[in-house]
Amino acid sequence: MDFEGTYTLQAAPEEVWAHLMDQQTPQSSIPGIERLERLGKETYAFTIHVKHAPLRGAYAGHATVVEQRYPFSYRMTVEGEGQTGKLRGEWAVELRAYNENTVIAYRGSLHLSKAGALLPESLIKGTIKILIQQFFTALADQLRTTTRRSFSGAPEGMHAGAELEQINSGHADVSSYPEQVTLLHRVVRWLRLGDNDPVLEEQWATRLRRFGMASALLLLVWIGTRLPKKFGVHGVTRP
């Protein structure tokens, strides 16, 4: 079965590439990863526990990174065995710069043994989509944390000047500033309005913020129209 999709991250392709190629990233971002050990230059042994049906269970195998073109694309192959029998997969990943962001496009295929092939394909694809979204969400959080550390390490005055310049030019990366991760962002993520895409999530947060301000103004107007009916000119309650 085949699968593909895109995800937008608020960082430059070089920074995203560095995280993707760092062994610490999959160890902290792949859902259910229990072991990741380097066997060769680009080959890793893994053990992973999937918590979602119908692929629920433990899997072990090898993954290899091939055909790297820094920082634009790479391809990976994986072979393993688990609850559904043997599996073999491969996928290609492309990184494209878009303004100050990076759009990741991925496409791949997964081949299961006869036992696994009996499982509903739609459910398997749904589980894979959930795992991919969880991975990119964790990766986006890591990139935010890295960016915040780089800003906090800047000399005093430089941080404020750079931030003001970015905001005025309209190119501020909102995920770089922890104070802007508001309740609205959490609500947007909880409702999955942005499909775990940081750029779309920020757009939805802006829409909700504008809607909230408009609602507050309407509420104040309504209260203002009701007050004269209950109070006199000098604040004395009318009979």
Compact description:
With 239 residues, the protein is α+β, with helices and mostly antiparallel strands.
Write the layout of secondary structure elements.
Blueprint: E1 2-9, H1 13-20, H2 24-29, E2 33-38, E3 43-50, E4 57-69, E5 73-82, E6 85-98, E7 101-112, H3 114-117, H4 121-152, H5 158-169, H6 183-191, H7 198-230
Antiparallel strand pairs: 1-7, 2-3, 3-4, 4-5, 5-6, 6-7
Helix pairs in contact: 6-7
Could you walk me through the main structural features you see in this protein, from its secondary elements to its overall organization?
The chain has 239 residues and is an alpha+beta fold. It folds into 2 domains: 2-147, Alpha-D-Glucose-1,6-Bisphosphate, Chain A, domain 4; 182-230. Helix content is 44%, strand content 30%. The chain contains 7 helices and 7 strands. A 7-stranded antiparallel β-sheet has the order 1-7-6-5-4-3-2. Strand 2 (33-38) and strand 3 (43-50) form a beta hairpin. It is globular, with a radius of gyration of 24 Å. 14% of the residues are buried. Residues 151-181 and 229-233 have low confidence and may be disordered.
Name given to the CATH architecture of the largest domain: 2-Layer Sandwich
> Could you name the ranges where pLDDT drops below 50 across 5 or more consecutive residues?
151-181, 229-233
CATH superfamily of the largest domain, called what? START domain
Q: What count of domains describes the coordinates?
A: 2
SS elements, strand count: 7
How many strands, what sense, and barrel or not for the largest sheet? 7 strands, antiparallel
| Average pLDDT | 76
Assembly state: single chain
